[in-house]
Amino acid sequence: MKNCILFMMMAGFFLLHPFLSSAQFPDSPPGFLTDSSAFDDFSTPYNTTLTFFHNLQEGNFKPEISAKALDVSRMGGANANSLAVKLKQIFDGKGVYVRINEIPNERNYIDSLANNDQKYFFDKTILPNIYLEKVGDKWLFSAYTVSHINDLHQETYPFGTSKLLNFLPKIGNQIYFGLHLWQLVGLFFLLLMVFLSHKIFTIIVDRGIRYVLVRSGYGGLAEKFLLPVARVVSIYLIVALLAIFIRVLQLPIFIVSWVTLLLNGLKPFLVTIIFYKLVDVLSSYLERMAEKTTSTLDDQLVPLVRKTLKTFVIVIGSLFVLKDGLRVDIVPFLTGLSIGGLAFALAAQDTLKNFFGSVMIFIDKPFQVGDWITSGEVDGTVEEVGFRSTRIRTFRNSLVYIPNGKIADATIDNHGLRQYRRFYTTITITYDTPPELIEVFVEGLKELVRKHPNTRKDYYNVYLNNLSAYSLDVMFYVFFEVPTWPIELKTREDLILGIIRLANNLGVRFAFPTQTLHMETFPEKKGLMPVYEEGKAIYQQRLEKFIQQESGK
Length: 553
Prior knowledge:
- This protein is an alpha+beta fold.
- The chain has four domains: 22-177, no CATH class; 180-347; 350-417, SH3 type barrels, CATH 2.30.30; 421-514 and 529-551, 2-Layer Sandwich (Alpha-Beta Plaits).
- It has helices at residues 2-15, 17-20, 45-54, 63-66, 80-94, 143-147, 149-156, 164-167, 181-215, 219-245, 253-291, 297-325, 330-347, 349-364, 404-409, 435-451, 485-506, 536-551, and strands at 56-57, 60-61, 119-123, 127-135, 138-141, 175-176, 179-180, 372-375, 378-385, 389-394, 399-403, 413-414, 421-429, 461-467, 472-480.
- The strands form five sheets. Strands 11-10-9-8-12 form a five-stranded antiparallel β-sheet. Strands 3-4-5 form a three-stranded antiparallel β-sheet. A three-stranded antiparallel β-sheet has the order 13-15-14.
- A hairpin with a 2-residue loop joins strand 4 (127-135) and strand 5 (138-141).
- The longest helix is centred in the middle third of the chain and has 39 residues, at 253-291.
């Protein structure tokens, strides 16, 4: 990719070389200055601009005339000729292409956008400090502009590159392929510097950082995340070098303006790509942190954060590309966006409600993935918490999508957060069961609860509780300390089977709705009524024997 960028730029220079020697200014309309000897007029913004730039052109270099366009009243003994040359270099370095025909030719021109002052701005976005101002009967570069020329020149040619502006032309002014010899030499050294920078950076990153990370056990992280980011950073450094040193070559403004526009657009674009890839690095770190927590909701939060951050990076990066690359004034755009955003918010209030509902779910954590919840008529297991809705798998194996805005306002019964799971049933026994047997049976039920490993031992209730129409009712009210529903069902099954075995061992009969017809007992037949043994000790012995049998299993 880096080689492609360089090749395209070199090809562009040589394909467009016929334009490099063309005049900087188009033909003037009727009534404007046309005589080259008369370029010494400052009566209108047009004439001042034409005089200033024409007398700094190659072949007609008269900086003393261009210096008359500067208001040096506040500069004391400053060298006006040098300031004029620097101002021209600022225009060239910034890539500001001055279209002479678009400049007003009115002596009393008023800028309605600048508090109705008699000022003319060339480019308020790139050069907001450079403007013409009427001083007496002349239009001159304002005293404010002149006072900032040195600072603007240093900003345009940083890191000492301004010295190259005087050094390179000494190499030679012969013209080859539409370029001066010193421009060709400078272009050669610029490309050489770019390739050397690329090689050095490649050695440092691809070999040095990769070696360190592989030795530290992070080879996968280096290959997947860091090296792609480093390569984009390498491209950015190359573009930054080109943006700085291409100005020194003093190419015609038509070419420089487009090259500068391209490079200024590439820089925020590459920065956007860098941050876009860094989001993946951050997401990888968050995923590892989420794996260390017991909550599964964190695993759903990481993709949502990744998508949100990437969207934010793309939006902000696009604004900077529009501002720096395409030179679009984004203030009116943002103003219109805020008004349009209000209308959009009104139209998409349900979507926004669902978004903030998802935010509240991640903050409050009323449930997590895998929990069994009940919300209204929906009863099932949470499978995914998304940007707009939550997906729940019902016990009919169907999927229900509930908007997060409704979940945030609804009552949620989270069965998955239960520490204990209740089991309540009524054990019915027949009315003819002796009280002594009932006492032993109830004690046996309590012993079943105390012996089972999955029951809560500090709180349970097992009592003879009611006299119903056809049975004596024993309340069996216990809690299970189990993590999942299948284990709860298995524990319930164990207790029920234990109750049945206990009843069979003690001779307790379970009651059910019946009708009994009592008849006189015949001498030759025994009655249907059961005969119970007398004394609690016999039943107590049977209970101890049963407990020993259960403990031996």
